[in-house]
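Recall the central idea of this unit: under ordinary conditions, the amino acid sequence of a chain determines the structure it adopts. In this exercise we apply that idea directly, starting from the sequence alone.
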Amino acid sequence: MSDTPTSDETPQPSLLVRAKTLVRDLFSTRLDKSSSRLRAIALAMMAAYCGIAIKLVALGLSHEPPQTLKTAADQAASGARPDLLDRNGEILATDVKTMSVFAEPRRIIDKDEAVELITAVLPDVDAKELRERLDSKKGFVWVKRQVTRKEQSEIFHLGLPGIGFLPENKRFYPNGPLAAHVVGFVDKDNIGIAGMEKYLDEQSLTDPHVPGFTVDPASLKPVRLSIDLKATHALRDELVAGMSKFRAKAGAGAIIDVDTGEIIALESLPDFDPNEPADAKDPDKINRVNVGVYEMGSTFKALSIAMALDAGKVNLASRIDARESLRYGHFTIHDFHATHRVLSVPEVFTHSSNIGTARMALMVGVEGHQAFLRKMGQLDRLRTELPESAEPLVPKHWSELNTMTIAFGQGLNVAPLQALMAVAALVNGGNLMTPTFLPRTEEQAEKVEHRVISAQTSESIRYLMRANATHGSAGFANIPGYYVGGKTGTADKIVHGHYSQDKVFTTFMA
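Accordingly, the structure predicted from this sequence is:
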């Protein structure tokens, strides 16, 4: 009998085979389920990454193209300016390179973190304001202008996307406050807003800073001024010493070339440092030489006597009665140092007689007096290259009393530079010209000057001013070796609409 199965019998698997099959089927089922879960997870992750990618692409597409950003940066960055020099080539103002920090808000993902990190490096940047700027829809905003190298390095190493640096020009004034009222200053955009700096912009002598139009800083020709740095130093030192000696609240002075009208030096104290011009708008720090207007006191007597001489009403030999005070209605004009005698014209000048000067002005008359002062540039605003100037305070109703008081320097407020230019005309041969802060030759001056008094009258005024230095109130200025002439002046200051009894405005012109 054989053990081999016959053809009609179905083979039955062994117990071991059935067990193996069962295990295989079990694992196959579990793997299928696991694969489904893995596929589901993979699909979810792919969807998330696709979403992020789409968002990044959208951000990239919505971001301004490089050329637009460059245009925004060009418009925001400061333009180049030419150097300002004194008459001898000494630098008064120049550009230095600096870096400024900017942001592209749309590229910054975590703005809170960016604000926190940036303000830790730049503590003077207001966190709230910076956050508002970063929330803007703009493609370019400033973070901080003109940072130090240390600040730049620390910001760079933060590695924040969307934060960059832009080279800019920063104005530097190597002499600090010296000649600050002449030189002026600029704003953060390197645009002139005062003094000769503003004049440069008005005359288109700086980089026009128009998008697409750039100027190589090297091509900007330096601008030379008329002022002399050494003379300005000397003038400032004297003003500081004088203010200390007399406990004055302020002081100002100017030196001019009477033959050309060039301003050689101009100082007004207290002043400011144009490198840190935040306090330049302080009313106490105005340019008192051509922005302030004041009663010039007895220095105006030089104009009044010149007027009478030029009109032929008196000559140097004429005698003026100063024995009694001069009365006009309820007003009385008297001399501070009364002589109570008849004075010659030179004595009226050296004794600074109010009575004598008023009498000479009355000889010319009200209309003649007004016409003379207008001709001398005392009744209209004085214009120079400096944008800052002031209108004289002229009486609304000009009577004989006004003529008498204005004759000795009370009742008419003018800028000191106005009065100075008038006195310059009295001594330079009789020619009045507009002052300038730019170089001007005598030949050029001849084209802008006009005669206001005769050469003979000018010679007489020079004689009177010299006599005042040798025998009068200007003796302190009579320096050995120099032919000095001058006229002092004192005017009571007006406080709350009334003349003060203990506050004065003193002047000296030589």
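Residues 1-11, 55-67, 210-214 have pLDDT under 50 and may be disordered.
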